[in-house]
């Protein structure tokens, strides 16, 4: 059986086909920031895999039975049943998206001055920790520093560092957050062995261990493929085992819930649940809808069933692996080994002539748009580096990467072939790409609203 998509297309949406002069005008008007482009100026949109998936006919049908009662809607109980079966957590709250879930969980869990430890905090997770007057500290495993090695679980947390931080009397750790898969760390998976060991260390030190489970199904699939002892388990069994190791989770369900909007907070501790519930009612909605409609809760319940199907995960992983092969054959290195939700291109290596303060990742991302209408985003010094008030780079990021994120069930093999052709075209003449200079640079969440110009 060839590795083909286990679905066919019933509803289609045209994609804009543009010319290079049109794209040059659009990019200049957008201040060379892909977030400022209009979607109708983009041919293939690889900006994010979040909320951009295609819903299934079964999800759409489920949505039709959404119960929109303010309190106690039937849809909540159907959603609850699926999440409870998956996570085993007794307290489950919907939230409108991941960052709302994080805000509530951390506000209920952390006191100012405490530290949150993680394999890598996603940027909104970090922001929500810091907004509470706490420190967000990343402890990625040492293998993650070698982008080229094929170490299978570069998403792991550094267990020795975790033990050290938890044993340090000067460090008041309020929570340990394991991000699966590790989005900020190249979309790499976390092994069950690492999760189990981290959970054990946390239990010994009496510190809550939570999952940021946005891509729990993709992590589970990679465990079945890469971790000894898991080849014969289903992704659902592996995911259940991961949730069972933790005290609870916060998750954006815009990824592995395959819906356009949604999130959850779930936990074992009834006292923590009571505090979260109060914050949820004040900020999101009554606990049986938590910022979502009955229609969305139904679609989520169905999406969570579909996302753990082995045929779906196998084909999605194969599509990413195939794109990874085409891109590397075109001469562009990626963070190895390829994960599932995105490819991370090594722009620093492709563009040695562009120094970090001229943002090589941004140069590559911009050129992919200009050459072929492919929208993606830099994950390098523009996003992660320290910049002063005049927009000058003070501290560069450790790597200059570009993320090609892959929406779920949206693009076909020929779209990926097109993307690979655009990458190959751009990679032929790296010296022709200009660097960039910041001309407007907001103090917080710079990458969303900054403006640049080529130099
Ligand atoms: N945690 C992780 C690991 C994420 O990747 C994201 C979002 C969030 C939390 C926040 O969830 O967007 O629903 O509020 N990641 C998106 C991305 C935006 O493009 O990687 P949200």
From TrEMBL:
Pfam families xref list: Beta_elim_lyase (PF01212)
GO molecular function: tryptophanase activity
Keyword Iron-sulfur appears in the UniProt entry: no
Similarity section: Belongs to the beta-eliminating lyase family.
Gene3D superfamilies reported for this sequence: Aspartate Aminotransferase, domain 1, Type I PLP-dependent aspartate aminotransferase-like (Major domain)
Its EC number(s): 4.1.99.1
CC cofactor: pyridoxal 5'-phosphate
Residue ranges constituting the Aromatic amino acid beta-eliminating lyase/threonine aldolase domain according to the UniProt record: 45-421
Protein name: Tryptophanase
Organism: Saccharothrix longispora
UniProtKB keywords: Lyase, Pyridoxal phosphate
InterPro entries associated with the record: ArAA_b-elim_lyase/Thr_aldolase, Beta-eliminating_lyase, PyrdxlP-dep_Trfase, PyrdxlP-dep_Trfase_major, PyrdxlP-dep_Trfase_small
Top-level class of the enzyme under EC nomenclature: lyase
């Amino acid at each position: 059986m060839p590795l083909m998509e286990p679905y066919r297309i019933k509803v289609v949406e045209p994609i804009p086909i543009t010319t290079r002069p049109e794209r040059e005008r659009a990019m200049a008007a957008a201040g060379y920031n892909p977030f400022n482009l209009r979607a109708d100026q983009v041919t293939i949109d690889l900006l994010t895999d979040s909320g951009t998936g295609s819903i299934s006919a079964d999800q759409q049908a489920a949505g039709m039975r959404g119960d929109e009662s303010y309190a106690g809607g039937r849809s909540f109980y159907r959603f609850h049943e699926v999440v409870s079966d998956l996570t085993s957590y007794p307290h489950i709250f919907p939230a409108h998206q991941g960052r709302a879930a994080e805000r509530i969980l951390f506000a209920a869990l952390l006191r100012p001055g405490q530290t949150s430890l993680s394999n890598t905090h996603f940027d909104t997770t970090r922001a929500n920790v810091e907004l509470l007057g706490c420190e967000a500290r990343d402890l990625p495993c040492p293998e993650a520093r070698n982008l080229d090695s094929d170490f299978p679980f570069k998403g792991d947390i550094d267990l020795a560092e975790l033990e050290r931080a938890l044993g340090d009397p000067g460090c008041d750790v309020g929570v340990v957050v394991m991000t699966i898969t590790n989005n900020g760390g190249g979309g790499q998976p976390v092994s069950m062995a690492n999760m189990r060991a981290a959970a054990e260390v946390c239990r010994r030190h009496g510190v809550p261990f939570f999952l940021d489970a946005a891509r729990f199904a993709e992590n589970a699939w990679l465990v079945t493929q890469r971790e000894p002892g898991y080849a014969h388990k289903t992704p659902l069994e592996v995911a259940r085992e991961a949730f069972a190791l933790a005290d609870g989770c916060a998750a954006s369900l815009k990824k592995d819930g395959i819906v356009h909007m949604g999130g959850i907070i779930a936990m074992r501790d009834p006292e923590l649940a009571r505090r979260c519930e109060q914050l949820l009612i004040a900020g999101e909605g009554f606990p049986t809808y938590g910022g979502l409609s009955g229609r969305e809760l139904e679609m989520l319940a169905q999406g969570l069933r579909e996302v753990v199907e082995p045929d779906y995960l196998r084909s999605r992983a194969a599509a990413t692996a195939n794109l990874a092969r085409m891109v590397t054959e075109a001469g562009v290195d990626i963070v190895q080994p390829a994960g599932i939700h995105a490819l991370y291109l090594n722009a620093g290596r492709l563009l040695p002539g562009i120094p970090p303060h001229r943002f090589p990742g941004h140069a590559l991302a911009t050129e992919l748009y200009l050459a072929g209408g492919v929208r993606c985003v830099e994950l390098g010094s523009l996003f992660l580096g320290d910049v002063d008030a005049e927009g000058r780079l003070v501290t560069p990021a450790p790597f200059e990467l570009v993320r090609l994120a892959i929406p779920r069930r949206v693009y076909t093999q020929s779209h990926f072939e097109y993307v690979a052709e655009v990458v190959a075209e751009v990679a032929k003449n790296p010296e022709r790409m200009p660097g960039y200079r910041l001309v407007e640079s907001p103090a917080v969440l710079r990458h969303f609203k900054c403006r640049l110009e080529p130099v």
